[in-house]
Amino acid sequence: MNKEDCVIYKGNFFQIEWYYTEKGESQPFDYFNTTDLAQQRKFLMLCQRLGDFGKIVDKTKFRSEGDEIYAFKPQPDRYLAFFRKGKKIIVTNAYRKSGQKMPKGEKDLAIKCMEDYLKRNPDTEEADK
To answer: Who contacts 19 (Cβ-Cβ below 8 Å, separation ≥6)?
Structure first.
């Protein structure tokens, strides 16, 4: 994966992208590809809504998880993300929800991915929310 391949959706308010490592690997993209078409459609509809309208009011579909991490919530999946300068949202990791609370390791991974992204893309330090 590279800068051209990572765009999920480009809307009037936000461009939503997959996070990928220096080696071009993307855990959330790989996870997305393992889900069925109905689940993929749910996630893509949330991306389109946020990209085109700038917000998703329904907290059961998108909300802050603290520490600058947000979650797209197409049941039963979770896609963690963060906002960046240039009206970008970077999707860092994804998993299938299996309990009431988010596994701590998932949020830690999202923070680690955010830090890696900022290190490799220093011009995107400030978030545009």
So the answer is: 6, 26, 27, 28, 90, 91, 92, 93, 113, 117
